Amino acid sequence: MTRTQPPTTGAAPSPAEMHGLPRAPVLPPPRRRRRPALLALAVSMVVLGALGATYLATSLGQTTAVIAIAREVPWGQTLTAADLVEATISADPALEPIPYVDRDEVIGLVAATTLGPGSLLTRDALTDERLPAPGQQLIGVGVSLVQLPTTPLRPGDDVLLVPVAAGSAPATTQGVPSVVEATVVNSGPPGTDGLRVVDVLVDEADGPDVAARAAAGLIAIVVVAGE
């Protein structure tokens, strides 16, 4: 006699069913809670990032025409049209060069410091005060090769004018300082007589004595350390 087994359909019975226990209810998957505030913050950050990238690209692409120095302009010299050239730079809030459209306002002003070629011109580098300033006198001192250093003198150098007597001995004059402080404005090339004329600024109280000794060739120039 053949024993028949009931056909198996569906999934295998769970351990709970095998022991006669009811099947545990199937719980639905947990629903994710949406947070509108976080979603809005994420969208805002994306928008701000896009705006920032756009602004950066636009800023880097913007250029402006400014004034640059075409050749060296010594301290105290008046700027001319030949000293200036147009330069195009990217906008940068850290730089404050003079716009090229103001070129005509710059011509005729005085360099407040020595301006190097290729540098951008700023307002701080200019002055409308011409040399000599009040209380000063501008004097040309002719000196021979043995009366000044071989190192070239530059505008703005601080020097001492040392009076010398005929024969190169130090000289003193009653009531007048033996040594006069001065500032170099310009140093010319050697002349046919072997003398080099150096323009210097001195206090107006020292001007007459310096001029008299310079005319006699009785002044030597000594360069001192600047500030």
TrEMBL record:
Q: Which Pfam families match?
A: SAF
Q: What is this protein called?
A: SAF domain-containing protein
Q: Does the keyword Disulfide bond apply?
A: no
Which stretches make up the SAF domain?
64-127
Question: Does the keyword field hold Transmembrane helix?
Answer: yes
Q: What domain of life is recorded for the organism?
A: Bacteria
- Kindly give the SMART domains that the UniProt entry links to this protein: SAF
Region called Disordered, residue ranges:
1-30
Provenance organism: Blastococcus aggregatus
Annotated membrane-spanning segments are 37-57
